[in-house]
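Progress note, project year one: complex with magnesium ion.
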Amino acid sequence: MADLGLIVLAAGKGTRMKSNLPKVMHQVAGRSLLGHVLATAATLEPARLVVVAGPDMPEVADESRKYFTQARTVTQAERHGTAHAVSMAAPHFADFTGKVLVLYGDVPLISSATLRDLTAAVTGEQPLAVLGFRATDPTGYGRLIVARDGTFSGIREELDATPEERAVNFCNSGVMAVDSELLWKLLPQIGSNNAKGEFYLTDLPGLVAGQGAKLAFRECPETEVLGVNNRIQLAAIEAAFQHRLRHQAMLDGATLVAPETVFLSVDTKLGQDVIVEPHVVFAPGVTVADRAWIRSFCYIELSTIGEAAIVGPFARLRPGVALESDVRIGNFVEIKQSVIEQGAKVNHLAYVGDARVGAAANVGAGAITCNYNGVEKSLTEIGARAFIGTNASLVAPVRVGEGAYVAAGSVVTKDVDPDALYIERGESKILTNWVKRYFAGLRARKAAGASPRSK
Ligand code: UD1
Ligand code: MG
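Model obtained:
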């Protein structure tokens, strides 16, 4: 929307989070609170987006640009209230006309549809629109003052409200859309003569009404405007996100056997007929193709899983893993930064890091790529159809050719030609009746009176 500007308030210290991190940088569903707000905001394609950060929040500018490349960040050095925070963004709107939408950086569940609807409510006759919601517990919120005939005349903060006003449960979400000209004209008129001594943005609707203009409001579900002040609320928002993401995944055709035990990230992509067994975590950046089967107790991060692949139970895929179709990854297997080609198997207790495992190759139980020498990481290449015996150590950089075999227990330090056998093993011996002779010797020594510790 070419005539839309956004201001995201994120200067709050978040004291109740008891954290070194700015509140808006805390994560839910694998993304920061601010990231969620900006990702939603970006869908409106605003012409301008300014984030108001607090002092000592160097992370905020970078985080903002991740979701909206032209995002600008301003610092509100001292917090004097929401109107004061908005005024920090004013210099960036000097040459702008249109609508300005104000959002909070700590209210991450807001939907794009709600924001569009609120923005559309701003017209020539109604130059300001506020997003309200029915609060289960209105304590602490500002109240929308709506007369019996539906006329909305302003917002009253709880501390400044009369008992009758406090009895109202129609509350201010904080999200507001307003004609930019009017915003910048009236903002300087807001005073701080209130219970908190702050400059309240919520005084703006009253001022607009005072100019003889009509005010608009829209209502959204309370769940969309839940904010985060402490870690209990952070967990509640996480739960709400998970609920949403699980539902969407199931509606899109994935089976979650026990959905409440599967944790998704906002960017998790599950294909059709994917089956996810109980207790699986999808950290950010995971794509799972159709018909793949993720068995219980897997932790998967920044990886792609091919069609009909089977992963787990108890597997860990670290960043940079690409499993092609029909691959099998079994229990207690860890894979990092590797491509496992079609139909290859790594079924038990193995570590594969910085490797390429060729199609239909088999990596045996306990096999390990020794990819790190304490300083640098090196590559292991395993050819198609190669067979890596149990407990083999592949000391990278090293190559095992197509169809080659590595004998169990070998430490592979040289490249192996295609179809060759690599075996590195001490000669084996069998000493017949050794145990009997050994104990006979011990008993004889004891009978001769030698103590076990005698010299
Ligand atoms: C505000 C609203 C209240 C509404 C409630 C919804 C005002 C005066 N009140 O109250 O009507 O019901 O939100 O949650 O606006 N912020 C800054 N700089 C400041 C002050 C705040 O950036 O100087 C940011 C905060 O980081 C936060 C948002 O603005 O994201 C709201 O501030 P907060 O202090 O939480 O306002 P409330 O008292 O909750
Ligand atoms: Mg608040």
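The two ends are 92 Å apart (CA to CA).
The mean pLDDT is 96.
No further modelling is planned for this target in the current period.
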